Amino acid sequence: MQTPSLSARDQDLIWHPYTQMQTAPAPVGIVRGQGALLFDENNNSYIDATSSWWVNIHGHAHPHIAQQLAAQALQLEHCIFAGYTHPPAVNLAERLLKILPDNQRRVFYSDNGSTAIEVALKMAIQYWDNKGTRKHKILAFKNAYHGDTFGAMSVSGRSVFTRVFDDLLFDVHFLDVPTAENISQIITAIAALQPEDIAAFVFEPLLQGSGGMIMYDATAFEQLLQYCSSRHILLIADEVMTGFGRTGKNFAMEYVQTKPDIICLSKGLTGGTMALGVTTSTAAVYEAFLSSDKLKTLFHGHSFTANPLACTAALASMDLFIDPACATNRQRIHEKHIAFLSELQQWAVIKNARLLGTILAFEIITTNADGYTNSLADQLHRFFREKRIMLRPLGNTLYILPPYCITNEQLDQVYNSIRELVSIL
Ligand SMILES: *Cc1c(COP(=O)(O)O)cnc(C)c1O
């Protein structure tokens, strides 16, 4: 008898994320990766056009990262991070602070994007508490996505993702994403909330990822940040997806002058190799926790905080990231996208074609409402899977968010599959 496929064995046992298990097609068993390609159990290759859920930046199974990881695994795989430290954690903190906005001074490690957000929220609330003022109000954007744990869900826009839990989430004041037209109304609305009661404003700078790859204006955003800053509202930049070059700059906050008090990083941090989260803070935030009073401690940590292997993967990814070849690749992708964008803009079945750095997005016009539950999503996902291209739409929003090593030929294959889709719609 033939051994059952990976995919069949999976279907007997595994519950997949964001997947309606009753109707989802059998998962593809992936056994190997190289560059922008992933290979299934029958050795078919798939172009990873969305960077494996936005995490991969240098390609799969990158030899430099793999070798550094293997060496570290033989040296020190893990160690408690309270009362002890190790070279990968210290080296990574030093190197991260060199490339982050220059007001950042401290690095707090956790496990993923959601935990980086939880830590940021706790830092912000306790910062004020430690200074003797309780502040309960938090600002966030409508349509925001900051993760799937309860704190992260609370600061995310209320949506189909949070619906069942909405009454268990803490209250947040949601703002429209700023434009030249609405910015003064947004500021008036914040002023009416009594800004002295607002602890923090958490935002995805310039690009709302899961909310539908919504791109917004840097000038109005800057005005909003300046206003919040002048009212002593702590600014939490969620760069979990925008970090490490996706938007054209190393970090999206480089598009504005105002510097955040707290930054959250995760997805691209290890080059997509391992789970790791980072929350950085200014000296002012950090110093508010220094005290002879133990109650002013930040009581937060995870078993795998600052895992040496994950930190090593991040260091190896950083070697590749700071190499000028990486920026050249990002620019190359950006320029290819520009050419395809002008083509997209001419097609009647497509609207809102837009581009930021290496990310190209657009909506397919359907008779159903736009949004994550738009039924077109499953059809599109299947269409591209059959073409052996990994594109996973957000509802009727399609986007390309490739690893920076994707070749021009591979990008052309992705564009061609979209041309073919448009021709049959
Ligand atoms: C993915 C994402 C998160 C959550 O990260 P996880 O590692 O999936 O928990 C938080 N913020 C943003 C902007 C994200 O895109």
TrEMBL record:
GO terms for molecular function: adenosylmethionine-8-amino-7-oxononanoate transaminase activity. The modification N6-(pyridoxal phosphate)lysine is found at residue 267. Its cofactor is pyridoxal 5'-phosphate. It catalyses: (8S)-8-amino-7-oxononanoate + S-adenosyl-L-methionine = S-adenosyl-4-methylsulfanyl-2-oxobutanoate + (7R,8S)-7,8-diammoniononanoate. It is found in: Cytoplasm. Keywords: Aminotransferase, Biotin biosynthesis, Cytoplasm, Pyridoxal phosphate, S-adenosyl-L-methionine, Transferase. Belongs to the class-III pyridoxal-phosphate-dependent aminotransferase family. BioA subfamily. Homodimer. HAMAP family: BioA (MF_00834). This is Adenosylmethionine-8-amino-7-oxononanoate aminotransferase.
